[in-house]
Design a protein that fits this description.
Blueprint (H helix, E strand, L loop, with lengths): L2 H5 L2 H4 L6 H25 L7 H21 L3 H11 L11 H18 L3 H20 L6 E8 L2 H14 E12 L2 E10 L6 H6 L4 E8 L7
Antiparallel strand pairs: 1-3, 1-4, 2-3
Length: about 220
């Protein structure tokens, strides 16, 4: 093998396989769609703490996935090597909101479709999914669940609290009951009538009740 044959490597030959204009168009389109996904995420977010960093990562995810698909779409050997390389990557960040996972898959899917050259599919799919998410995010339920935590002195106070709750709310369910030397702690999931919280004052002033707290929650409860 001569020096000139070594210099004419396959790496240098690959430089002519990609058009700079195609790369700029694909990455620019991925950026626009990623920005659209970010705006939809910002509009439909309903969690407790909004993270702008996660929204920006959706834009980066679209562009990075597009870049990877552009690289492996013309080379089968490279695609197998890329799969092997990416399989060893482990992400330790916990995704707390279920909708965040949907947005991550949406951004990745858009990057794959753009990198494969299916631009009409990417645009139509992005618009359709965005409209669906916007429509369903506007439908807020008024039947918001609440958690009622009451510290009772004895079983008589507990019975009076539960009777008051059953008469004042649409629906209630005892989630936990803790008995200790200090008394009884009740945790009850309630659905309010016309969003009225006046009953909590009655419970707090009842005999044998030390403390009463009403908090809103997202439907998940861990003991």
């Amino acid at each position: 093998m001569t020096f000139s044959e070594i210099f004419k490597s396959s790496f240098l030959e690959k430089l002519t396989e990609f058009s700079p204009l195609d790369i700029v168009i694909a990455l620019g389109l991925a950026f626009i769609i990623g920005l659209f996904i970010f705006m939809i995420y910002k509009k439909t977010f309903s969690g407790v703490m909004y993270s702008s960093g996660f929204g920006v990562s959706l834009i980066a995810m679209s562009m990075i996935t597009t870049l990877i698909i552009l690289a492996i779409s013309t080379n089968v050997v490279l695609s197998l090597g890329m799969v092997g390389a990416l399989s060893i990557v482990r992400f330790r960040t916990a995704v707390k909101e279920p909708m965040d996972i949907a947005f991550l898959f949406w951004a990745i899917s858009e990057g794959i479709v753009i990198g494969a050259g299916m631009i009409p599919l990417a645009l139509l799919g992005c618009i359709f999914i965005g409209v669906v998410l916007l429509v369903f995010s506007k439908k807020k339920t008024t039947d918001t669940p609440y958690i009622l935590v009451v510290d009772c002195e004895n079983s008589e106070a507990e019975k009076e609290v539960l009777d008051t709750v059953s008469k004042s709310v649409k629906k209630h369910l005892v989630k936990s009951k803790t008995i200790s030397a200090k008394g009884i702690e009740l945790t009850v999931e309630v659905r309010l009538k016309e969003m009225s919280t006046d009953f909590i004052n009655k419970i707090a002033s009842a005999a044998g009740v030390h403390n009463a707290v009403l908090v809103s929650y997202n439907g998940e409860y861990l003991t």
